[in-house]
Amino acid sequence: MLEVNDLHVYYGNIHALKGLSLHVAEGEIVSLIGANGAGKTTLLTAIMNQVPRAQGSVSFLGRPTAGMTTPMIVRSGMTMVPEGRRIFPRCSVLDNLLLGAYARKDKKSVRRDLEDIFTSYPRLAERRRQIAGTLSGGEQQMLSISRALMSRPRLMLLDEPSMGLSPIIVEQVFATIKTINEGGTTVLLVEQNANQALRVSHRGYVMETGEVVLEDSSANLMQNAQVKEAYLGS
Amino acid sequence: MKKLLARLPHGKGEWFFGSSGRATFFGSAAALLLVCFVDALSPSATIIPPYYKHILFSCLLYSILSLSLNLVTGFVGQLSLGHAAFFGIGAYVTGALTKFYGINFWLTIPAAAVLAALVAVPLAAAAQRVKGAFLVVITYGFGEVLRYVAINTDFLGGSAGMPGIKPPTIFGFAFNRVGPSGKELYILLAFALVSLLSFFTWRIEKSRVGYALSAIREDEIAAVAMGVNTKYYKTLAIVLSAFLCGVAGSLQAGYASFVSPEMLSSTQSILILTMVIVGGPRSIKGSILGAALLTILPEFFHSVKDWLGLGFDPWMILYGLILIILMRFRPQGFWGKTTVF
Asked: Does residue A216 sit within a domain?
């Protein structure tokens, strides 16, 4: 579904991605773990064509994305839940969700999807008129994920969904990700919380300073001595 | 104080349109016609002095400007301290075309608006990359540069300005020859523009464009992730706003029959911005009432000064006080719903 080949990205003199390759197949949850500054967020923004790539290619659904703008990529079925949630704080919950469907033109099915989201997340339904900035951190994360769902993505990129949330809420967020995946959405999950990420995902990549250093099934990665030492803290 | 300010009407029902809005529109139109032509009914006495009509025109003119700036500051959340430049460009285009080339006033309006919009394109390009304080400095510099261009262009009258601009005509009658004071047609024209612009703003707010602009204001990175073409909409807002300021400039040139570089000054830009902020960004009512408030109050206190024979203008003190109290207790402005910065 998503193919990244030999991707290079520079920020001025900084070589942020050094020939990174990965692939995500339809129906998978793939997690990408790595320390701060490994280039995880850069990779996601590069996939969404928000930063220029110096070299390499990305293709989505078999088509190269070079030359596509971010809105075109969103319309083609990819969406991103940005790091730190980034909801629209002074808009209502409802408006946030409607903005998630911004790239879609089919008003009727948007309404239906909205009802689906309100059924699955009754908290958001209760608060649909509330200003989004007044929600709790967990609710905001749910809103951010729901907003991304409103674009009817085939592939969802999640950037650090556990950031700044309490352990119980983190559990809920990962359970939600699993449910979304079971509903047919492919997920690429970028996380520092390697433990949780590897537990829900099928496969995983380990990133260090702009490169993939390890790639395996999540079960194997959790047994890997290196990964245990560096990321699982045991 | 906080409670009192919080009780001000806000939120539901914008002026001019919506369920209660049509009444406002027809009501204010009727009131305006009465004010304009009541003197024509009794030719012996002047009921409403021309001075009041001048203030009325100024209120409407500044409403056009604040509504235009509201598209940028209210909807996109970008501060601009250069909007008077677009106003000035419009005024100079109309002035020069009518005076030196004898072109009909009405034909100069589109020319003025288009030139103002074109000049806004480089500013829009800058606004793609910077925001907040940086954008404030850039727009300020932009306005000042254009003011100096006006001051140093002898063809445009230099620092003395350009007098003797011909008034617009309708069916062969010059605007300033119609009505008891000669200001009535200008007032009606300005009112028509304010109404149109209010309607337009009201339609934009709940449209796809309005949603896109709110998203950009709230979080630009997230807006991009939602598939909003931020570059396009940011440019659109600034260029459209400049276009409308250009129209206002034309109107002012025809009304005053005089254009000066002071129209482009940063003082003007700050005044327009303050009108939007005091009234309440994102609110149509706020932009109109903010403009009216900051046009009428200085004039009123100027007369107070004369009546009491004060050695200073009490408005200057009150102005500062009002701004401080407002920002402390009601940062969203008198008629605003939420803050935008």
From this structure: yes
DSSP B177: G
Q: Å from B309 to nearest chain A CA?
A: 48
Mean pLDDT confidence for B163-177: 88
For B225, the closest of A48, A95, A131 (CB atoms) is A48
In tens, the pLDDT along B321-330 reads: 999 999 899 9
Taking an 8 Å cut-off on Cβ atoms, the answer to whether B211 and A74 are in contact is: no
Contact indicator for B246, B114 with CB cutoff of 8 Å: yes
Which member of B212, B224, B226 has the closest CB to residue A50?
Answer: B224
CATH of the domain at A12: 3.40.50.300
ipTM of the complex: 0.84
| CB distance B39 to B181 below 8 Å | yes
The residue among B91, B242, B59, B249 whose CA lies nearest residue B161 is: B91
The domain spans of chain B are 22-36+49-265
Report d(CA A136, CA A140) in Å as an integer: 6
Tell me the Ramachandran region of residue A19: left when phi exceeds 0, alpha when psi lies from -120 to 50, beta otherwise.
left
How many domains, in total, are found in chain A? 1
B227·A102 Cβ contact <8 A:
yes
Residue type at position B299: E
Burial of B28 (0-12, 13-18, 19+ CB in 10 A): middle
Which helix (H) or strand (E) segment holds residue A78: the answer is strand A78-81
Q: Which residue range is the domain that position A172 belongs to?
A: 2-86+153-232
User: What pLDDT is stored for residue B13 in this prediction?
Assistant: 46
pTM of model > 0.80: yes
The verdict on a CB contact (< 8 Å) between B218 and A98 is no
Contact B77, B71 (CB under 8 A): no
Residue B11 has phi, psi (to 5 degrees) of 80, -115
Distance CA B186, CA B69 (A): 22
Distance CA A176, CA A141 (A): 11
| Cβ atoms B77, B135 nearer than 8 A | no
What tokens were used for B277?
Answer: 């902020």
Helical packing angle, B266-279 and B50-70, nearest 10°: 80
Residue bearing the bigger pLDDT, A230 or A173: A173
Amino acid at B72: V
**Which residues in chain B are contacts of A50 at CB distance < 8 A?**
224
Chain B nearest CA to A134, separation (Å): 13
* A233/A194 Cα distance (integer angstroms): 10
Contact predicate B268/B86, CB 8 Å: no
Residue A141 exposure: Cα atoms within 13 Å on the Cβ side: 22
Answer whether B228 sits within 8 Å of A102, measured CB to CB: yes
Q: Which residue has the tokens 């969103």?
A: A74
Mutate to test the interface with B, among A51, A86, A97 (most CBs of B within 10 A): A86
